[in-house]
Amino acid sequence: MSWNPFSRLGSGTKKPVISRTVEREFEKEVKKLEELDEVTKRLYKDGKRLVEANSALTKTERRLTQELLGTVLCQSEQDLRWQLEEWDHSLSALETQMQEVNGVLQKAVIEPIKKLNTIFPNVQAAVKRREQSLQELQKCQIKVSRYQERDRTGPNIVKLDAGKKVLVQAQNEFSSQNAALLEDMPKLHDSRVQYFQPSLEALIKSQVQYTTEALKLYGELSNTLNGQRDYSNQEYDASIQQALSEIKALSITVD
């Protein structure tokens, strides 16, 4: 169903049923809701993707520690095994935190957006009914215009009077639908900020909580593994390069 079917305002009539200004105003409001509909659909899909990405991140990290813990090296090197167990323990705690973030995403973002998406088909249907009423009004006006051009015989006068009554009914029906849409569509569009703001606030708070907990856990893990010493990136690089140089110096690794 088209959001904004083109209204043939002057097709078959001597003058438009409604003014171009009124129709442009209507089309403007419809366009804004059409864009809002598209945005909410994308947000819904992106929210679901974010939940999946969050879950994949924690599972991937846990898989890394679990695979390392299962190696022969960890079975023989107790210090390395202890470090990996501490790391895995921290990741387990973070996984729980991430589940809470995903729970907030589901309840505060995805579900509200899904509910909002169910409203737009109703608006589309109302726009379609308005278009049908406009077309009916155009037909009635054409009939009345034709009767007015005919000779004023008894039968033609009767048809003209009947046509005018039907035209008035069609005008009232269209005016009612048009006025309701022009009043309600801006209200629906303007309510978007008020509707989305609580969802965004809840999401941001959950992200802050997760990041804070991650910083705390990784900080504690770093202190535990490094014996309270704060190694710089340069020191880590130097240690890795030294170990790599010693490996390259082995006879079995010489080209």
TrEMBL record:
Which GO molecular function, any one, fits this protein according to its record? lipid binding
- Please name the SMART domains in this protein's record: BAR (SM00721)
- Which InterPro entries does this one have? AH/BAR_dom_sf (IPR027267), BAR_dom (IPR004148), BIN3/RVS161-like (IPR046982)
**Name of the featured protein:** BAR domain-containing protein
Domain called BAR: residue spans: 11-234
| A single BP term in Gene Ontology | plasma membrane tubulation
The protein's matches in Gene3D superfamilies, at most eight in alphabetical order, are given as: Arfaptin homology (AH) domain/BAR domain
This protein's UniProt keywords: Cell cycle, Cell division, Coiled coil, Cytoplasm, Cytoskeleton, Septation
User: Which stretches are annotated as coiled coil?
Assistant: 91-150
What exactly does this protein do? Involved in cytokinesis and septation where it has a role in the localization of F-actin.
Highest taxon above the source species: Eukaryota
Tell me a GO cellular component: actin cytoskeleton
SUPFAM superfamilies according to UniProt:
BAR/IMD domain-like
Q: Where does the protein end up?
A: Cytoplasm, Cytoskeleton
